[in-house]
Specification:
Elements (H helix, E strand, L loop, with lengths): L1 E6 L7 H11 L3 E5 L10 H7 L2 E5 L7 E5 L4 E5 L20 E6 L2 E7 L9 H23 L5 E6 L12 H6 L7 H12 L4 E2 L2 H4 L22 E5 L1 H4 L2 E6 L15 E5 L2
Parallel strand pairs: 1-2, 7-8
Antiparallel strand pairs: 1-12, 2-4, 3-4, 5-6, 6-7, 8-10, 9-10, 11-12
The protein binds one DNA strand through loops.
DNA sequence: ATGACTGTTCCGAACAGA
């Protein structure tokens, strides 16, 4: 079984590319982030046509996550327990469309779009860190209920865990950029070090990126970042056969700025 | 080429991404 995650940066703008990619990638489950669509605008027909069931969670033109599967799609959950809300001062707090879970062929899949911290001192950074903390508390409760649980947390984590996960760490430090700060990295590594999950893609793809900014010719120069991950529970990690990052999909006109990350597990 | 982006909203400037 193949499980993929892909931040598509608008499902409507990317409809044709998503359909073509599903056709050639032969994945069984695709976790999607940044659909940028409300429910009524989601192009369900693409997935019907390609033989996938799909569950979407979208509240506005921002965020939006989905899971498409051709091996079953059960027990869909929108938001995780205790998922933090965000509100601008004076506005009503809202749980944003950043997490959707479903069980596909016995594997619990979560498609996740971790908040962008925006700036090291920005209120969104505290939101991001709290969001990761609450997510990990769910992981701990799932594993304490069943140490053999098979689940996958996949998506756009908006964290570059190691210095070599960005093209030039000095550039990031000089510009006081997010994604590489110690608190963000601590929050990310806690999923491995404290909760026992595994980044199952890195061993097969070290040195590769998953994202390249549209500006400044970042892709042709291969000035990218590794920020999209698949983190698996211990029992699911045992089933991993291989993984790859589909750099080809970033090429050409009309590509997303992120590219798909694919894992194959034993049936 | 001495700079070079993409998307949504409801028609053009604001916002967001990272």
């Amino acid at each position: 079984m193949k499980i993929a995650t892909w931040n598509v940066n608008s499902i409507r703008a990317r409809a044709e590319r998503v359909e073509e990619w599903l056709d050639r990638s032969d994945v069984d489950v695709l976790a999607i982030q940044e659909t940028k669509a409300q429910e009524k605008n989601f192009p369900y027909e693409i997935f019907d046509f390609m033989g996938y069931e799909v569950a979407h969670f979208g509240l506005s033109q921002w965020n939006g996550v989905a899971i498409a599967s051709r091996v079953g799609l059960e027990d869909v959950e929108r938001t995780f327990a205790g998922q933090p809300s965000f509100a601008k001062p004076g506005d009503t707090p809202v749980q944003e469309a950043r997490a959707i879970g479903a069980t596909c062929a016995g594997v619990r899949i979560w498609s996740l779009y971790i908040p962008n911290g925006r700036g090291l001192e920005d209120p969104h950074m505290a939101y991001k860190l709290e969001w990761l903390k609450e997510l990990r508390s769910n992981v701990d409760s799932w594993l304490s209920a069943d140490a053999q649980a098979q689940f996958a947390l996949v998506g756009d984590w908006n964290v570059a865990p190691y210095d070599h996960d960005v093209w030039d760490i000095d550039y990031f430090r000089e510009h006081q950029m997010t994604h590489v700060s110690e608190p963000e990295r601590d929050a990310f590594f806690a999923f491995m070090n404290k909760s026992g999950l595994s980044d199952v893609v890195r061993p097969f793809t070290e040195g590769e990126y998953t994202y390249w900014d549209y500006t400044k010719l970042r892709f042709p120069k291969n000035e990218g970042m590794r920020i999209d991950f698949q983190l698996y529970s211990p029992a699911l990690t045992q089933r991993v056969k291989s993984a790859h990052i589909d750099r080809e999909e970033r090429k050409g006109k009309g590509a997303s700025d992120h590219t798909p990350v694919v894992v194959e597990i034993a049936d």
